[in-house]
Amino acid sequence: MALTLGVLCTGCGTVDWFREKREAPSEAAQLVGRADELVREGQPSAARDLYARIVAEAPRDAVHARALHSLARLYVDPSSGLRDYRAAKLAFERLLTGYPRGEWASDARAWQAALVELVAREAELAARQAELTMREAETLRLRSEAAKLGADLQRLKRIELNLERRR
Fold first, then answer.
1. What's the pTM?
2. Confidence check: pLDDT of 19 > 70
């Protein structure tokens, strides 16, 4: 009995050793962890570069999906200074295309819907700003013409006065 228990305990230890070896984080997972640390440390540009490297080089698995999700979230985080809604929208699209039923899919769908609306509103705002700029330019041109016409009118009045004096 003691011998059987000893063999079982030794076997359990061996199984645990194999489980620990198998569950050791991959290099990509370690890099994602490092990128997450960089975000927390206030180094979003370095984190973005590391996430992008992982997305480009890592095998297509859960770690790749996590890196893609983190990269997309970094683009929408106002505190990161890397706000780029179009890049975020593309990253979320890539995530949904590659992992439609993955862990991050529902979050990506929500962000995707919000970003579609946001990008449309930004385009609308840009068009309005362009229109305002054109109107301001037209207003300046009209004011300049009005000033020239006023000066011409004054000159005509002086000429008229001079003509009357000569008569």
1. 0.63
2. no
